[in-house]
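Section handout, structural biology tutorial.
Before the tutorial, make sure you can parse a SMILES string by hand: atoms, branches in parentheses, ring closures as digits. In the record below the ligand is pyridoxal-5'-phosphate, and the chain has 415 residues. In the tutorial you will relate the predicted structure tokens back to the input. Do not try to memorize them.
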Amino acid sequence: MNAPHNPNTYRSGPDENGRFGMFGGRFVAETLMPLILELEQAYEAAKIDPVYHAETAYGLRHYVGRPSPLYYAERLTEHFRDKAAASGLSGGAKIYLKREELNHTGSHKVNNVLGQILLARRMGKKRIIAETGAGQHGVATATLCARYGLECIVYMGAVDVARQAPNVFRMQMLGATVIPVESGTKTLKDAMNEALRDWVTNVATTFYCIGTVAGPHPYPAMVRDFQSIIGRETREQMQELEGRLPDSLIACIGGGSNAMGLFHPFLDDPSVEIYGVEAAGHGIPSGLHAASLTGGAPGVLHGNRTYLLMDADGQIKDAHSISAGLDYPGIGPEHSWLHDVGRAKYISATDEEALEAFQLISKLEGIIPALESAHALARVAELAPKKPQDHLMVVNLSGRGDKDIPQVAEILAAR
Ligand SMILES: Cc1ncc(COP(=O)(O)O)c(C=O)c1O
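Predicted structure of the complex:
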């Protein structure tokens, strides 16, 4: 049993075994163990190396285009204030969007990939493998491999290859080999299984660039550290704009990296409410969803213990979401822990609600969001009108929706 958690230090995890409470850890094949330890050592050394820090900072600024703006969404704010007034309420939070969709390659994924690719170079690895769902992590990995002249192989479920065709073409243009995965549900979980298989087979030459805060230790903590630039910038920008901390943070959750990146720098600020939004697909009661915390139980998958969608025999169940990037039957272990200790609240939005938010934000703000980010925006519709007007709400706009336009067009045309 783990020691009781000290609520003053939510940011201190994981422990030396990579555990956040009972979650996380390192459940991998023996063949991978030396590699995981080598990676951990390399990351620990890089963390205290000013040269590595300078290289990453330069890349984030001049290649990725950071800092990303923290933008006051005035029309969206007014829209929800009008809704509140129509129900006799005087509320309506002031809504800010953290514009991760403006990063080079169109999402937050590149923050993490830059950190990992620079680490791979330090380790002398020239062959990079990655898994991808929506294709955004694959595109970011293909991009940085092109930039640094590395071989890039991306595993992608065959279903996702079909629904995210623009990103498949982008990866190929960037020189990557995209391997469609035909096993299981042909989505993100299966792509990750295949990438892990490749890694076991090619341990000596290959660096596995994981796209979210999942996988064996040190990945969940390492990816979180790379993504925490989102929350650190938000803190500074909100201080500049409003002279104080935000009151609430909202982000969508696939594996949980954009959310963890926004949340982590605020975990020890008790005044800041934290909401993660999982994909409720056709609705939680239907069983067709990807909400591992809302509708799952603890188990082991992809090298870590976390909440998973499982049947009564412990077999992993198929996840469902309209959004390829959220279509994963697990969640990063740190989220599982934050859920159990009660520091963050996990809610969900259905396919239909996300589609509605996708259209609303496009029309009101002139920003077409990724379907993934639209899940977070969908819950704002419910939360914002209930908050007072001086409540500062930050929504992570994790990616842009260009990749989703063919899919959304098809859905809307069929109505
Ligand atoms: C734009 C965007 N947002 C969110 C996600 C979900 O991933 P995560 O939960 O790791 O941020 C993805 C995954 O592909 C994505 O492309």
